[in-house]
Amino acid sequence: MAASPKKGTNRNIEVPFLLQEAVRNGRAILFLGAGASKECRNTAGKSSPNGDQLRDLLAQKFFGKPMGNRPLS
Q1: DSSP letters along the chain, please?
Q2: Buried-state track 26-52, b at ≥16 Cβ within 10 A, e below 16
Q3: Taking a C-beta distance cutoff of 8 angstroms, is the pair 58, 50 a contact?
Q4: pLDDT tier for residue 8 given thresholds of 50, 70 and 90
Q5: Model confidence at 4, in pLDDT bands (50, 70, 90)?
Q6: What phi, psi does 51 have (nearest 5°)?
Q7: How far apart are alpha carbons 66 and 32 in whole angstroms?
Q8: Spatial CB neighbours of 68, under 8 Å, sequence gap ≥ 6
């Protein structure tokens, strides 16, 4: 079982046999990093907000004003 290469690349990734077996038998837990959905689009073709955009959306919704000068950390 090789992972599908990213569009425009010729790279094949070999998945170790033990990992393949764990997935087949329901013994694997998938962990995704923060960038896992970076290139995803909804049915309208829009992407998810990045960290700064999400901060601004939440600030507008809950505080009624943008807070663009606030750090995320």
Answers
A1: -EEPPPTT----EEPPHHHHHHHHTT-------TTTTTT-B-TTSPBPP-HHHHHHHHHHHHHSS--TTS---
A2: eeeeeeeeeeeeeeeeeeeeeeeeeee
A3: no
A4: low
A5: low
A6: -60, -45
A7: 29
A8: 52, 55, 56
C-alpha to C-alpha distance for 50 and 34, rounded to whole angstroms: 10
pTM above 0.85, yes or no: no
Give 25-60 pLDDT, tens digit per residue. 999 988 888 778 888 898 999 988 888 888 999 999
Q: Are the CB atoms for 67 and 55 separated by under 8 Å?
A: yes
